[in-house]
User: What shape does this take?
Amino acid sequence: MEILQARKLTSKSKLVLPSATSESGHLAHPNSAWKIICEKARIKNFRIHDLRRTFASCIGDVGASQRTISIALNHISPESTISYTIPCLKLVQEYMSKATQIIKGCARSYNIYNTI
Assistant: This one.
């Protein structure tokens, strides 16, 4: 907030993020800045939209429902959110291990362990 308040005091523009080069007069997409950031960080083939996918995957990994992720990404349909969420492989392995333990426990309790 302090940065925005300071900008308001010094800026002659009504816009929060004005741009001298865009047709709209405001920052529309930080393509050139993003390109410089990626070059300095020596990152190849990384788009700003990849950050959106990473964010969606992270909130999914901490337990957010598909609907919650959909709302966070401002998607109208939860189905369009599915491609954004890539679960952490470690979490997938943990769930698979838990499921295996449940299956083994059920098999033992029904004495069918050796028939599987």
The chain has two domains: 33-85, 88-116.
